[in-house]
């Protein structure tokens, strides 16, 4: 009996994609959460705060409009 992998929710789109760069919204999980969602950290998400990325996802379907062609819909097992 092995350990079962349980995917974590993307902080931006909430899809259960696990971490790293989310294929559903293209947000890179850098540990940012609701506590500091308005902070622009730089790093892999550039000039985006988590708050702005969430708004972009609601409007454009991606954490930034430039990523619209790089994302895919959440699979049934990835939906929150």
Quickly list its features.
Cys_rich_CPCC, little secondary structure, Cysteine-rich CPCC domain-containing protein, 80 residues, globular
Descriptive report:
- InterPro entries: Cys_rich_CPCC (IPR025983).
- Residues 9-78 form the Cysteine-rich CPCC domain.
- It comes from Micromonospora haikouensis.
- It is built from 1 helix and no strands.
- The mean pLDDT is 93.
- It starts with 49 loop residues before the first helix and ends in a 20-residue tail after the last helix.
- It has 80 residues and is low in regular secondary structure.
Number of β-strand runs? 0
How would you describe the shape? globular
Question: What count of helical segments does DSSP give?
Answer: 1
Q: What order do the SSEs take from the amino end to the carboxyl end, as H and E?
A: H
Q: Could you give a short account of the major beta sheet?
A: none
Give start-end ranges of low-pLDDT stretches: none
What proportion of the residues is helical, as a percent range?
10-25%
**CA(first)-CA(last) distance:** 27 Å
Estimated structural class: little secondary structure
Radius of gyration: 13 Å
Residue share in β-strands = under 5%
Tell me the domain tally: 1
Whole-number average pLDDT? 93
Domain Cysteine-rich CPCC: 9-78
Organism: Micromonospora haikouensis
Pfam families: Cys_rich_CPCC
Protein name: Cysteine-rich CPCC domain-containing protein
């Amino acid at each position: 009996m092995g350990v079962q992998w349980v995917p974590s929710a993307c902080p931006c789109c909430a899809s259960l994609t696990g971490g790293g760069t989310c294929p559903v919204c293209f947000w890179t999980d850098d540990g940012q959460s609701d506590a500091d969602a308005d902070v622009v950290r730089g790093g892999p998400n550039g000039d985006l705060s988590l708050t702005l990325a969430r708004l972009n996802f609601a409007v454009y379907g991606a954490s930034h409009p430039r990523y619209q062609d790089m994302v895919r819909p959440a699979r049934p097992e990835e939906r929150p």
